[in-house]
Each structure stands twice: as structure tokens, then as C-alpha cells.
Amino acid sequence: FVFFKSKTKKTLPPGPPSLPIIGNLLLLRGLGIDLEPTLSKLHKKYGPVLTLRLGRRPSIFVTTRAVAHRALVQQGAAFADRPPAAPASAVFSSRQHNISSAPYGPIWRVLRRNLISETLAPARVKAFTPARQWAVQTLIDALHERALEGPVCVIEAMRFAVFSLLLSMCFGERFGDEVVKKAETAQRRLLLNFSKFTIFALFPRIGKFIFRKRWQEVHDIKHQQEAALLPLIHAAAERRRKGQTGFFSYADSLALLELPDCRKLSDEEMVSLCSEFLNGGSDTTSTTLQWVMANLVKHPHVQAKLYKEIEQEGGVDEEKLQKMPYLKAVVTEALRLHPPGHFVLPHTVTEDSTLDGFVIPKGASVNFMVREMGVDPEAWEEPLEFRPERFLGGGEVDLTGSKEIRMMPFGVGRRICPGMGLAMMHLQYFVGHLVKEFEWKRVEGEEVDLSEKVEFTVVMKNPLRVLLIPRACSEN
Ligand code: HEM
After folding, report:
1. Where is heme annotated to bind (predicted)?
2. How does DSSP assign 219-242, residue by residue?
């Protein structure tokens, strides 16, 4: 073998030798979670910052909490950039004109500030209380109906309810099942196929020709998304034109927004931004919701303790969530053990930088091992145990990681998830209601299987199947 040599090799973080052209691609048995065990092994050999060759640019991975803190918090501005978009991502993000993929600069700042102040500010979130009540009730009704027939596979109903809620926040209306289904199908097709499109990142020039059908699928999905979302964007515009007041939605805020070059967003950009809002906000949340409930089935004593807290508070109104520390601890513990993303979105540096004595070149992809940090035995006693109590009585954790990172399911630093507060609230709200309404019980003869599978997020390989006993019945 002739090993790959580059001018910067001496100063880049260390890593395994790589082959010409294909670099370290042989380490990837499929992209995604398979990389994790490999990285854990490499971490032991090469230390907490390491380099792989997975494409034209070096891919740098940070495996420990302390180094992540030095990069994302102490050198926050330097590490806040995003690498150039891979070909498929460029199509879906309208050439990096959405929040998650925009370079660290004026467009990103305007788009992110708009989301935070116009949709995620507490008063705006409060305005959607009726949408949340309706979404959770729809989920409960669906589960009651299915529970009559025996064990229930719950993930689809969860996904539908969370997606309906985000769709309402995005477009300011409550939609019928058909509209929700059409938008959900388009968005889900993107999520399920996304890893397949990574091939275009690895072979950006020739990939489109070799995998012509797959490249066509990128455009088919984009058209399907536009067919589902554009009518909703136009309906919101029509309501504004007629002066009809309703909920001030995310789409409304985008339509009024002016970009730094004094222009408005195009329809294509609006679709990308709404799509980011819908997928960023719903898939992560419904995936986590299923992980929480699976752990509550596996640990009935935790569920009983949580139900007691709910009873003591007399229900799960939004105002009461603040007074329910155990509910918050249960959700946080699930996010520690089962973060929906085991990595964050790829970062890069704004200019050539150094980290722990190594060069981090501009354009290199830099990522962080979120799940590995959440189960670091130096930060957590019995890290693999589901024990929400660890977050009680002074054990609360600051998820922004500003002083120290203990876990980072939402990322930390300048690119921290702007939806963190909303996501925590939605999770507590849904979990609280689901436990108040039903006793969640293991199906006789079946174990709850916590094996993982990478879709877009890391989901349960075998979706949760449970017995749902309405509390009214279980108390008789
Ligand atoms: C359990 C739920 C959620 C989890 C675990 C989660 C996690 C994350 C993570 C890990 C990142 C990347 C951080 C980085 O690159 O360093 C991120 C970014 C982002 N998330 Fe979330 N998220 C959740 C819910 C939401 C919600 C509800 C919304 C919006 C309604 C949202 C919108 C975004 C956006 C726009 C970004 C890009 C931020 C940027 O690049 O500046 N997420 N999220």
C-alpha cells in the first residue's frame, strides 16, 4: 500500500494511515453509527482529537468533553462555521440559505435571530398552547383506540402528533389529517434517504453521473417537498393579505424578513427554512419521546415515581412543568443515554486555527462525539444505567455547557440548538400526559429492546410495542 501524504499531515491531529483516493473510507461500514465504535477505538490509540480521511477535506473528531469545551465554548467564534455544503445538502438548503448550514456570518445571524425572537420567544410559544393541547389529545385518542386491540406500536402515532404540532407552529393553522400526512410523507422521505446521498459528498464531481438515478431522487424529493409546503406558505400569505389575524407563524415571520442584502426570501428558500423547522423540531422530538417511554416501560419504578409527581401536581398543565423536577430529570436522562444525534452537525473553523496544539485547517469538517460524552464514566456514576435521580438534589445539569460540558445533546456554543427550550418543554408535556393517561406496561414474554438504528436520528431498531392500560381502569 502507498499511504496518503499531505503537507499538513504533521500538524493535523493524529489518525490512522489512509489509502490514496479512498482515504479512510474502508472504516465506514455504511455511514453513521458504525463510525462510533471505530472512533472509540481510535480515541484510545490516538487521543481525544483525531483525523480521518473520508472525503477531500480532513474530518476531525473530538471525543472528550474537555476538548469540546475548549473548541466550542472557549474558542466559540472560531469553531462556529459550517463546511461547504455537500451536493445534496446544497439542493435541500437552497445553497446554504438555512440556519443549520449557513456559514457563520450575516445571513446565519439574521435567520437564527428571526427564529429565536419571532417563533421561539416565550410569548410566541405560549400562543401555541391550544395547538399543544390539541396535539396531545389527538395522540391520546389514537392510542386509546389502538389499545383496545392489544399491544400497541406507538412510534407512528407519536410522529404524527409531534409533526402536526410543528406544522401548526410553522404555518399558523390547524390542519386536517390529509394535509399533515402529505407534508409528513415528503419530509420523512428526505430523512430516510439522506444518508444515501452522502455518496455525493464523497464523490462530488463524478457522483452525479455514476449514480444518476440517485441524483434524480434528490430532485424528486425536493419537488415533493415543494408540492407539499408551497401551498401552505401561499395560504399563509393570502391570510396576511386579507388582514386575517390568527397565529403569527414561522412562515409569517420569514415572509416579512429582510436579508442583509435588502431582499426578501424566495419561495425556494422559504421551503428550505420551513423544512428545516419541521424536521429539526419534530423528528428529534418524536425519536426522543419513544426512547423516554421505552425506558419508562423498562423501569416501572421510575414510571410509578413519575406518576406520583404528576398526581401531586394535579395534572400536567404547561405552567406546572416548572414544578415537576422528576419529569424534567426523566427527559434529561433519556437525552443523556439516547441523544437523537450521536454527533452534532459538522462544524468548521472560520480560519486556520489550533486546538490542543494541532492545526485545524479552514474547511475541515469538525465533529463531536455527543453520545460518548454522555456516558463518560468520569462525569457519570454507572453511566449506562437509566437513573433520573442523578439530576435531583443539586445534580441538575446546565445543558448549555457554558462552564463545563457534562452532556451535549443539543450541542453547545454559538451553534447550540435554538429549539432546546421548546424541545424540552414539548418532551415534558407529552411524557407527562402520556404517563397521566396510561400505565405503560411490558408485553408479556417480550423484552423492551434498546438496540439502535441510524435513520436520520438514532432510533429504536425494534420500535416500542407496549400494553397501554388507561389509568382510570388500572386504578379500579
Ligand atoms: C430533542 C430535540 C432536539 C435535539 C436533541 C436537537 C439537537 C440539535 C443539535 C445537536 C444541533 C446541532 C448543534 C451543532 O451543530 O453544534 C441542532 C441544531 C439546530 N436545531 Fe435542534 N434539536 C432538537 C429540537 C429542535 C427544535 C424543536 C427546533 C426548532 C423548532 C430545532 C432547530 C434547530 C436548528 C435551526 C438548528 C441549527 C442551529 C445553527 O446551526 O445555528 N431543533 N439541534
Report:
1. 417
2. HHHHHHHHHHHHHHHHHHHHHHHT
List residues forming the annotated binding site for heme: 417
Other Cβ atoms within 10 Å of 252 Cβ, number: 21
C-beta neighbour count of 205 within 10 angstroms: 9
Average pLDDT, the chain: 92
Helix (H, G, I), strand (E, B) or coil at 49: strand
Residue with cell 442583509: 260
Q: Where are the extended beta strands (E) located within 254-385?
A: 353-355, 358-360, 365-368
What is the C-alpha to C-alpha distance for residues 379 and 15, in angstroms, rounded to an integer?
26
Contact 322, 298 (CB under 8 A): no
Task: Classify domain 64-474 by CATH architecture.
Answer: Orthogonal Bundle (1.10)
Domain residue limits, the chain: 64-474
Outline where 299-417 has alpha helix (H).
300-313, 325-337, 370-374
| The length of the chain, given as a count of residues | 476
Report angle CA 77, 284, 465 to the nearest 5 degrees.
155
Q: Which of 277, 229, 233 is nearest to 111 (CA)?
A: 277
Model pLDDT, residue 22: 63
Query: Average pLDDT of each block of 10 consecutive residues along the chain (476 residues)?
Result: 46 83 58 71 92 88 97 98 93 94 97 98 95 97 96 98 98 94 96 87 83 94 97 94 84 96 96 96 97 98 98 92 96 98 96 96 95 97 98 95 98 98 98 98 96 93 98 63
For atom 7 of ligand 1, the residue with the nearest CA is 410
Sort 231 into a burial class: Cβ within 10 Å, 0-12 / 13-18 / 19+.
middle
Question: 452 CA to middle of ligand 1, Å?
Answer: 20
Q: Grid coordinates representing 379?
A: 462525569
User: Side chain identity at 327, as an amino acid letter?
Assistant: L
What's the confidence (pLDDT) of residue 421?
97
Distance CA 239, CA 248 (A): 11
Interacting residues of 433 by C-beta distance below 8 A, sequence separation 6+: 136, 139, 140, 316
All residues at 6 or more sequence positions from 441 whose CB lies less than 8 Å from its CB, including other chains = 297, 300, 466, 467, 468, 469
| CB-based pocket (< 6 A), ligand 1 | 99-100, 112, 276-277, 280-281, 284-285, 288, 339-341, 344-345, 409-411, 415, 417-419, 422-423
Whose Cα sits closest to atom 20 in ligand 1? 417
This prediction's pTM:
0.95
Can you tell me the ipTM of this complex? 1.00
* Rounded-to-integer distance, Cα 407 and Cα 404, Å: 9
- The residue type found at 272 is S
214-226 tens-digit pLDDT? 999 999 999 999 9
Take residue 58 and report the three cell numbers written for it: 480532513
| Three cell numbers written together for 385 | 444505567
CA distance 209 to 214: 10
